[in-house]
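Figure 2 data, in text form.
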Amino acid sequence: MNTLQRDINALLNDMAYEHPRYEVISDFFEMSAIAIRNAVSYDSQRAEYEKRYADVAKKYDGKQIKAFSMALARFQDEITLAINGGAPFRDWAGELYMESGTYNANFGQFFTPYPLSKITAMVGTGIDTIKAKIAEDSNYIMTIQEPTVGAGGLIVAAMEYLRSNGINYAWNCFVDCGDIDARCFFMTYLTLSLLGVPAVVRLGDALKLEYRSAWFTPAYIFGYSHFYSRLKNGDYPRTAIIPKTQSETKQVTAPPTTKADKYGQLSLF
């Protein structure tokens, strides 16, 4: 157990006497994600999520709500330390979730170990191609899609790899990811938001292209003019599945046919 898991477990364990452990950890991720989402999104769904937050929170007393807040602060501190070089990157949410023992083993819900995610990121990112494109255009945006994102560990590993190669993922990368499991949806949104990753995180079935929710991270919203204008103009094929607003999640079309660009990179990678 790492120090993050130890500290958050210490904050949340007292609630397990009154509430099932899986419920406590799930509520932690959901309320934390909603708090961040509604801090930056003022769309027609905001009131709905505020009500959902209140419905979850009313199960707990004031001391327990404070413990949730302290757990979120500890979670944020760990990610901020990593960004500043004071702690390693890791699958923060996934490791916390797996250590809690509340994952669904019956559905094969075992998250990829972070060292393996790092290897996958190194092998699959095509770093020389990305560097060449950024050298040509400093505003170039690479796109990454992960339809079964789990807790976001593979995306975190990709961001760490880009950063270690001098690439500012907050400016030169956009992530389109999602999962069919609501807890995974909340974990990923929380992690990518705090890590400063421009992304849309979806809840739904990627095989059927049916989504119930699509939340944009603060990094995308704060850089909206940079990302939306460039992703919309057709230079980047993946934008066929990026909704203009969070309320347009049903207007989804399939990606175009895969093809390689002049650098040999697949346009849908």
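Caption note: Residues 234-269 have pLDDT under 50 and may be disordered.
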